[in-house]
Amino acid sequence: MVDKKYPFRLKQKVVYPSQGVGVINAIIEREFNGQRSPYFVIYLEVTDMTIMAPVEKAESLGIRAIVPAEEAQKALEFVGEQFEPNPSDWKLRYQMNMDLLKKGTVMDIAAIVRSLYHRSKVKELPIMERKLYESAKKLFEDELAHALKKSNDEIEVLIHERLENR
Predict the structure, then answer these.
(1) CATH class held by domain 13-65
(2) What is the pLDDT of residue 92?
(3) How far apart, in whole angstroms, are the C-alpha atoms of residue 150 and residue 138?
(4) For the purposes of burial, counting CB atoms within 10 Å of the CB of 21, is it exposed (0-12), middle (13-18) or buried (19 or more)?
(5) Over the stretch 103-130, which tens digit does the pLDDT of each residue have?
């Protein structure tokens, strides 16, 4: 049941910003509130979880294709660039980063990783920010690994080198 009206195809790898990198295993129709609608069935290996997302809401949920290698490389370089520090109020910083995570572009995820990594060097992150950092870092590593066709371990080293060499 795949045709041109769907933004993604079967077996395509996609990024679900708040969840991780996954693969579309099926496109099925389900009834909800008396209406039949198509859903993407996405398997997320990192959590061994399968989720269903309405096709019509995929874009608003931030679901997108893995970026091309060139864009992944730009994001990797971006992590090592200079930047303006985020506010010292952790609640404000947390909300800013959550907004970036919801937007979910690879550059947004890179910005979260960069800012929270450097913040953690100044002062230990509060637990919620530490969890956000770990989630963003894992998502960033997974997407770059797929885009650049490298292992997660290789990508982790590359990210760390860029973060430390700024």
Answers:
(1) mainly beta
(2) 92
(3) 14
(4) buried
(5) 889 999 999 999 999 999 988 999 999 9
